[in-house]
Amino acid sequence: MVLSIGLVGCVNKEIDVTSPLVFYGESDTWSGTLYVEQSQKDGENMFQVDQLTNLTYKEDFEQISKKQVEEDGIPVSFSFEGVMRSEGTSSHIQKTTPGNRSTTHSDEYATKEDEFKVIVEWNDEKETFIMTHNEKKTSKAQNLGKEEAFRYFYEPQK
Hints:
alpha+beta
């Protein structure tokens, strides 16, 4: 009797990772943008992921600014899902609140089909919305260099 044993190993394969990708969503009061720059590390099932979040106040900013002066600020806190979770707080509402720019090595990466939740709390109010892939903003990002794109997405987004 002949016994034959085959060994099966994990094969690291190249994955077609789309980069950059931009996700966008909005609620009544806020809009959120998630910019993701990503690449697969050679020969590994790991990805380098750079992401930037942006939270933009959509309502009358002059009016809320006056209210903040009267009330000594209106604290705001926010949470962005993404390849990496991003959270932040501010002592007052700003026209735009650039979130964390973060880099990680991960076994996960973003795809056009992904959806990411954003939660914003301020002045005893709370809004939740979903960001989805935005082809127009992704095309804009693809026409910019990486640093230029990061600067662009620090600006208020609509």
